[in-house]
C-alpha cells in the first residue's frame, strides 16, 4: 500500500466563479475534491516541464555533437582537396 505524503503547504488560486463551479461539478462527478484535481494537474505540469527540460538538454547535446562532426568532415574534405591539388 502506498504511503501517504503529508501535504501541509497551501497555494491560493484565484479563479472565476464559473471555473470554481465547474471544478466543483467535476469533483463531485469523479467523487474527489477540487484540491485533488488541482494536485494532479500540478503534478502533470511539473512532469511535463521536467520532460521538456530533459529533451531540450538532449537536443542541445546532439546539436553540439553534430556540429563537431560537421567540422571534422569539413577538415577531412579540405585535407583531401589539398592532397588532390598536390597530385595534379
Automatic annotation (TrEMBL):
It comes from the Bacteria. GO terms for biological process: regulation of DNA-templated transcription. Gene3D superfamilies: Met repressor-like (1.10.1220.10). This is Ribbon-helix-helix protein domain-containing protein. The lineage of its organism: Bacteria, Bacillati, Bacillota, Clostridia, Eubacteriales.
